[in-house]
Structures are given as structure tokens and as C-alpha cells.
Amino acid sequence: MKKEAIVILSVLTLSALLAGCQARGSGSAEGGSEQTVTRGTDEEGVIIVTSQGETMQKQESCDQTEDSFIPAQAATEDSTNNSEMQNSQSASDGLSALQLNLPKQYTIQYRVSNSEDWEDGYTQTLTRTAEGYYMEFGDSGERYVFECLENGKYIQYEYDEEQGTYEPTMLTEDIQKLIDAGVMTLDMVSLDSNVVSGYASRMTVIFDFYSSFAPSMTLAGEEEIEGISCLHYTVSSEEMWGRQTTDVWADPETGLCMKAVYLYQPPEGSVSVRQLECSQFETENVTLPEYR
Fold it and tell me: 150: exposed, middle or buried (C-beta count within 10 Å: 0-12, 13-18, 19+)?
């Protein structure tokens, strides 16, 4: 594939990501990028496909080692070892050799901007623990906690700015009374994992978005981001309508995209910038905010 086509593809992908970050998540995965995230169902339930085309596993209970939102190959010891071995060779094999290999708990935060100086920037945060998930979408002010139940379903809490507290979106006081009276069950107001993944896709689509155009990117060096030594890859082209450059920084250990920048320089006029950068990546002592 020609470099021009690759740059255009990377531009479209990054643009879709930035647009997707600003869209509202839903159970039908509204706000996810159709270019990079595909969903379907199998005999066991909901499955998810990442931008690398790998199946993500359905989470049956909160204390399982499998994560609903990370590639299936990271769920077993043998496959994790294979992923670590492949990622250790990424510098010589290229960006396309990386695979996502996230731990069982983490907080990942990105800042996103359509300008060079982050003046219009906002943050997106995803936290995963054994108790559930926390998601914050800075562009819209949405903040959610998804508490995992013993049956693998979730109770959703949304942050109320006026009250300064998290309130259940469906488990209201009246509903709780009906549950206590035996008229309703908690299962009736809980969410399946595929609904939660619809919200999470606004973040998870960023994790390995580079895979769609990785084969044509070349290694440019290494750079430390949030204390992590990352591999820097780049691709560019120059045409009559201007010069386009896309740079990606990835963590070779986890395969996580730590930074991405798209620059467009027209023949006349100012440079257009789209960028995102990981501003927090924690894997120890990760907790959900106080929500009840």
C-alpha cells in the first residue's frame, strides 16, 4: 500500500477516534469507531473484536482473570508469555508486531486535543478493578461507576454534579422497595457486560488503534511517556494539497498506544493538529471512586 494511502487511513482513524471520544456511549456501542470495533454474539453471549481483529472475552463474574475489554490472548498464562515475547521483538519487527497485554487492574487516562497547545483539550479515563469499572469522559462531563455483581452483571452509577454524589441510574429508592418486597429482582435493573463495553469502547478503541496502518510505519526512536520507555513510529507523505504526518508512541510491554499525533501542513496557512496522549497509566493500588 502506498504511503499516501496509509497516511490518509491513519488520519481517518485518528479523526474517528477523536470524534468517537466525544460521542456518548450506549449499550449498542454508540460512539465507538466502526472502523476499529466490531461486535456480535456467539452461543455463550456477547463477544467483541478489537482493531487487531481479535476476540475479546465475555466476563462471567467479577473475580475472573479475563477482562471483558482486553484481547483474549492475554487471558491465559501461555498466551501472555507469547504476547510478551512478541512485544519484546517489536522494535525490530515493527509496530504491527505489538499485541495488547494489559494487566487485570489498571487506570488509563488520555488527554485529547485538536490543537497543538491542548487549549481545547479534555481527558478520558478508564479504571478496571475486581469490583467493576470507572469511566470519565471529560468532553461531556459524564462520570460513571459500573459495580460488578456476583452474576457478572453491573449496576450503573452516574455522577451528579449538583449533588456531588454518584446516583444509580436505574436502582432508585422506589425500585429498591419493589426489590425488597419481592416484586422485582436486582437482575431486572442491572446491565449486561456488552452494555458496559459500549461505554468502554470510547476508550478501548484507542488502546491499539494504530494496528490498521502499522505495517507502513517506521521506527523513529524511543521516548519516555509517563515513565514508560515507548517506541516511536512515524509515517508521512507530501502531495500537492500539503504534507501529512502521523506519529505513534507505543509501550512495547503492553502494546498500549501512549501517544498519537497527526499533523497536516497545507501549502498555505497554519498547521492542523490532532493529538492524544496517555497522561496516567497505573497498575497497582487501583480503586474505584467512592460511589455509595
Answer: exposed
Q: Which residues pair with 133 in a beta bridge?
A: 128, 146
H/E stretch holding 112: strand 106-113
Instruction: Determine the structural domain holding residue 176 and report its residue range.
Output: 3-282
Average pLDDT of span 252-256: 93
Please state, in angstroms and rounded to a whole number, the distance separating the CA atoms of residues 16 and 20: 6
Contact between 274 and 262 under an 8 Å Cβ cutoff? The reply is yes
Q: Tell the burial category of 211 from Cβ atoms under 10 Å away from its Cβ (0-12, 13-18, 19+).
A: buried
Confidence (pTM): 0.72
Greatest C-alpha distance within the chain: 71
Closest CA to 250 of 281, 271, 273: 281
Cβ proximity of 177 and 163 under 8 Å: no
Residue 290 domain flag: no
Q: Which three cell numbers stand for residue 34?
A: 466502526
Return all residues near 185 (Cβ < 8 A) that are at least 6 apart.
179
Is residue 97 one of the residues assigned to a domain? Answer: yes
**Complete DSSP assignment for 152-209:** S-EEEEEEETTTTEEEESS--HHHHHHHHTTSS-GGGG-B-HHHHHHHHHHHHHHHTG
What percentage of residues in the chain have a pLDDT greater than 90?
Answer: 39
Q: How confident is the model at residue 68 (pLDDT cuts 50, 70, 90)?
A: very low
Q: What is the b/e burial string over 4-32, where b = at least 16 CB atoms within 10 angstroms of the residue's CB?
A: eebbbbbbebbebbbebbbbebeeebebb
Note whether residue 289 is domain-resident: no
Spatial CB neighbours of 177, under 8 Å, sequence gap ≥ 6: none
- Residue-level pLDDT at 3: 52
Q: How far apart are CA 114 and CA 139, in angstroms?
A: 12
Provide the domain count of the chain: 1
